[in-house]
Amino acid sequence: MSLLHRLLIDLQPLLDKLADCVVAASKSVGLKPYAQSTGGIDVTYLLNYAWKEFRTKPGTFAVWEQQTVRQLKLAFKLAP
What we know:
mainly alpha
């Protein structure tokens, strides 16, 4: 077993406690966990999907972006 692996095993209880503290502190200020969406008008989903779209289809990204922004404006009643 490597030194790094042993170190990670030794640190696991500390990391678990740290994670518990982060969750508790987040809840105490009203933060909610991110729930993965399947699409629709979920801005978080769209932001993540935009990166995928940009990386896989850079040539058509601008058109996709314009269409998506138009749909968002309509959904949030920001378009005339």
